[in-house]
Amino acid sequence: MYIDGEWVRSSSGQEFGAVNPATGEEFDRVPKGNDEDVKAAVDAAATAQKAWRDTPAAQRADYVLKAGLLIRETLDAVAKVDVINVGKPIKEARREVGNAATAAIYFSGLARRMYSNVVDSEQPKKFTMTVRRPVGIVGVITPWNDPASLGMWGIAPALVTGNTVVFKPASNSAVISAELVKVYEKVGLPKGVLNMVTGGGGEVGEALIRNRKVGLTVFTGESSTGRHIAEVNAPMFRKQVMELGGKNALIVADDAEISVAVHAALYASFSSAGQKCTAASRIIVEKGIVDKFSRAFAEGASKLVVGNGLREDVEVGPVVSRSQQKKSLEYIESGTLDGAVLLSGGGVYEDPERKRGYFVKPTVFGSVTNDMKIARDEIFGPVTSIIPAKSVDEAIEIANDTEYGLSSAIYTKDIGNMFKAINGIDAGMTFVNQGTVGPEVGAPFGGVKSSGFGRELGDEAIEHFTEKKTVFIDYSYSDRPWYFTPSS
Ligand code: NAD
Fold first, then answer.
1. Does domain 248-432 correspond to CATH entry 3.40.309.10?
2. Which among 205, 309, 386, 444 could bridge 89 via Cys, Cβ 3.0 to 4.6 Å?
3. Is 15 an annotated catalytic residue?
4. Ligand 1 pocket test target in 225, 376, 448 with most atoms within 8 Å of CB
């Protein structure tokens, strides 16, 4: 754990093992933090806050820029840690870690774009303006699925805007998350500005959200956890950004180029072994092409190269843990029991190498109806449903029939269909002729409904990390009438 510029053990001395999901073997030990450690981290962040706030934004941004550039220089080494810690294929890990670097570089530019307003005053000899102030201490709580990029999405804008940070990564990804902190240490970030406490959500996470010194919670994780955190935040009126779960629909219209849609849908469904908040888990296909699409998609899924992500040719790695593997298998069973047609995959591998790890075959169900459990719950594994629809209008209705609203996509060449999807789908993002995954750092990212609220990325981020203060300056140095009105 990293507290006040020092790498430390938990005050209790307790640890837990970090396990490589591809082999099931422990490869590192991680401190198991507690209330006391969180308090120390928050206190360090509080002490560092004033000097950091008073550091010019351009200088603060320099640290963030250097961190981004350093990650790019050491991309391969950091990506390997990502593979070993969470099981991603190496090519995808390079992309994810590269995305973390790009986010840091992008947000370093925010220092020059933190605009405020000047408001023409209603009174003579008076100047009215807004200034931006950091919220203070930001608690960044992340999940394990995209640990490098999601950590950076919270940390980089928080630092540039003058906040200090207590970072609480998921236990399954604590080792790769520590790599982000090491990078900031290497570029000389002052002590106390960024702190990291590792350990369970119930202890470390809970202590962080209950600490009243924290001014903003940036939370990425399950909707149920987000709901709990929002309940804890509410009585404190604490600011929060909630990036939660998804059950994302990818619509394929009759006029789509099938081979292109199949290829993109495979990536959107099975990259990160389906463990992406933006994963396409419901592919809604217009009836004219549903049979052809289903055959090609199932065949594509069965040909994906599944194995240890350290191999360059691997396309799908293991899921992150034994419990995630069990969860996917339970959903596969539920799909079969509900009457969906198993078109591909549907279980684990029996060869000795993959049997050791937490692998699940990329699984495709056809003839799914939107009321089945596999179409309603976020599975967060390599299990995808194909749902037939009579028309694009019906496909949009099905897409919206979910508690979630994070990402969505449509494959079509018809501009009318495109705009039906853009205007009709209730989601934070709609991709046209791209799968549901692959955000860009310059554009806002986030969801509606149970997928959360607030936007990360893009310049909108600044609104969460700063408070606007309105300043009125009277330079008349004279008495004003008590009951001044603009017309008086
Ligand atoms: P999770 O909700 O179980 O855990 C997320 C983080 O919250 C972890 O660090 C965990 O330790 C912590 N936590 C758990 N209980 C807590 C508590 N009581 N108080 C404070 N912190 C607590 O989620 P996960 O299983 O790690 O990640 C998968 C989920 O994340 C999926 O639902 C996925 O859709 C979502 N996700 C969302 C986005 C997005 O941007 N919308 C991105 C990636 C993942």
1. yes
2. 309
3. no
4. 225
Instruction: Retrieve residue 284's tokens.
Output: 């809604």
What is the residue-wise DSSP string for 351-375?
Answer: SHHHHHTT----EEEES--TTSHHH
- For 39, residues 6+ apart whose C-beta sits below 8 A from its C-beta are 207, 211
Q: Report pLDDT for 481.
A: 82
Contact (Cβ atoms closer than 8 angstroms) between residue 130 and residue 468? yes
pLDDT averaged over every residue in the chain: 97
Give the type of residue at 200. Answer: G
- Per-residue pLDDT reduced to its tens digit, 201-232: 999 999 999 999 999 999 999 999 999 999 99
b/e per residue 229-243 (b: at least 16 CB within 10 A):
bbeebeeeebbbbbb
Mutate to test the pocket of ligand 1, among 141, 278, 407 (most ligand atoms within 8 A of CB): 141
Looking from the CA of residue 143, the nearest atom of ligand 1 is 26
360 contacts 273 by C-beta, under 8 angstroms: yes
Tell me if residue 350 is catalytic: no
**Mean pLDDT of the 356-370 span:** 98
Cα 283 from Cα 409, distance rounded (Å)? 9
Taking only the tens place, the pLDDT of each residue in 437-451 is 999 999 999 999 999
Closest-CA residue, ligand 1 atom 13, reads 201
The finding on whether 379 has its CB within 6 A of some atom of ligand 1 is no
Q: Is the CB of 246 under 6 A from ligand 1?
A: yes
Task: Establish whether residue 404 lines the binding site of ligand 1, counting it when its CB lies within 6 angstroms of any ligand atom.
Answer: no
**Measured from the CB, is residue 92 less than 6 Å from ligand 1?**
no
User: Structural domain boundaries of the chain?
Assistant: 2-244+447-471, 248-432
| The model's pTM | 0.97
What is the rounded (10 degree) CA torsion for 186, 190, 192, 196? -20
Asked if 257 and 263 count as a contact pair (C-beta separation under 8 A), the reply is no
Taking only the tens place, the pLDDT of each residue in 440-483 is 999 999 999 999 999 999 998 899 999 999 999 999 999 988 87
Span 91-95, average pLDDT? 98
3-state helix, strand, coil in the chain (%, to 5): 45, 20, 35
Distance, CA of 386 to CA of 364 (rounded, Å)? 7
- Can you identify the CATH homologous superfamily of domain 2-244+447-471? Aldehyde Dehydrogenase; Chain A, domain 1 (3.40.605.10)
The answer to whether 207 and 38 have CB atoms below 8 angstroms apart is yes
Give mean pLDDT, residues 100-129. Answer: 96
Give tens-digit pLDDT for 414-440: 999 999 999 999 999 999 999 999 999
DSSP H helix total and E strand total for the chain: 16, 20
Question: Token digits for 336?
Answer: 């079969």
Evaluate: CB of 207 within 6 angstroms of ligand 1.
no
| Rounded (10°) angle between helices 415-424 and 392-400 | 20
